[in-house]
Amino acid sequence: MTIQEIENQLVDEFAAFDDWLDKYDLILDMGKSLPPIDPKYKTDQFIISGCQSKVWLHAEFRNGKVNFTADSDAIITKGIVSMLVSVLSGQTPDAIQSADLSFINRIGLNEHLSPTRSNGLASMVKQMKLYAMVFKMKS
Amino acid sequence: MPFDISDIRADFPILSQAIYKRPLIYFDNAATTQKPLQVINAISDYYLHDNCNIHRGVHYLSVKATEAFEEARKEIREFINAPSTHEVVFTKGASESLNLVASSFGKKFLGPGDEVITTIMEHHSNFVPWQIICEEKGATLKVANILPDGRLDLEHLYSLITERTKIIALTHVSNVLGTINPIKEIIAYAHAKGIPVLVDGAQGVSHMKVDVTDLDCDFYCFSGHKMYGPMGIGILYGKEKWLEEFPPYQSGGEMVKDVTIEKTTYNELPFKFEAGTPNVEGVMGLRAAVQYLKNLGMDEIHAYEDSLLKHAVERLSAIKDMRFFGTAPSKASLVSFLIGDIHPFDAGTIIDKMGIAVRTGHHCAQPLIDHFGISGTVRASFAFYNTIEEIDKLADAVSRVKTMFR
Questions:
Q1: Annotated active-site positions of A, please?
Q2: B100: which of A44, B35, B274, B352 lies 20 to 30 Å off by Cα?
Q3: pTM
Q4: What's the CA gap between B81 and B188, in Å, rounded?
């Protein structure tokens, strides 16, 4: 699926709920289904620190596609990480770099990407795009 | 004066808004308090009618503004019962007051091998400036521990004192634990050994009567915005004998007496420490806040907030797996907690979606949070415009969080 198609699917899933608390129930579920990151990558080398919740991110390049695995110590953050990974993982560096990730805004979760130091999500998105750029340059 | 909660809340229009279609419950007062109309109007009135640069000029507005400004200083002197207005310095806030003392005291009185004592429960603003000045001067920073219930370990604090101790800098009230430190007792002990004491009063002045003469503290610092006044204004109270000795902190207009190319002499207290055009609107707002608090009565405020705290502890303790940080017998109206193993960020986000503003994280007290081996806490801090019903809603929210994350 293209990035756009995956994003649209996510937006549809959330559109079914009106109340914020129901949306967060869904985010929690997504967090639970995030494929686990290899424990050897849960180190300071792969950490993206926010002020409160931590995010670990690992990336590898295979057959022209970037594969991401990630984790967070806060479940809500994990849920949003899971969405970002499902959208960007398995895509080409070009597609990742040009992704506008508007789905976050459309679902109404943009507060989580705001620069309030609360979490590492904004930095994580930046890091994912950096990985894509580096892999593209190297290949 | 009897406490009429609905009258009081009517003075704070910001409290009547809805967040995510739920009524706002503002429990983040330790971060900043809301302002009554009296404070908001004092600020806009100043710009509508009285705005002028002060201490300069002979024209009507200038004289009027100067008088109002110095009248405000007098009222604040009275509010904390300082001996003289020379000892009441307007600053940007508690952080600037603390930086001023650390920097100026350090410049004049700290040298290699000297010692400064602080505590592990300090806000970064009363920790980092001391770290910096100690490093600059080759002095040692010693840190007093806490007991498991969040009280200061007085035995440990006193054991840290040596003949090289030059100052003790500690908080009146912990912004994480709520612990009210026995500062009068500590000051007496320190003075008997010739050691001055600085008190960070940022969380103190809003909750109880503060009498700096009775406390006999050498310095007391606080922010306007944490006591229902505007942001960008604060107070440094310092004993005249110290402030006379200190070199200036910032220089420029206002704090000078004579300026020539060769040499400059400095103005008398308190102006020596008030460089540049002051935050006059802030002073007007702070004055209105002081008047508002005087009207309610600090003792009445203290009693009401105590009842809120008791109710919060009662309702929250009844929830299984609650972990409380700071359970000292003498504490201010705030609770720091974790709900089992649920990450504070997760808890705070859901509580927010239920319309309740709490704060999560390390609350600018990383050494303290590290001491507990946690990533942060959820903190609900109460003011005199909060209600028992709001606390009940918090308890419901906490139960809801528990269910969501099971």
A1: 51
A2: B35
A3: 0.93
A4: 18
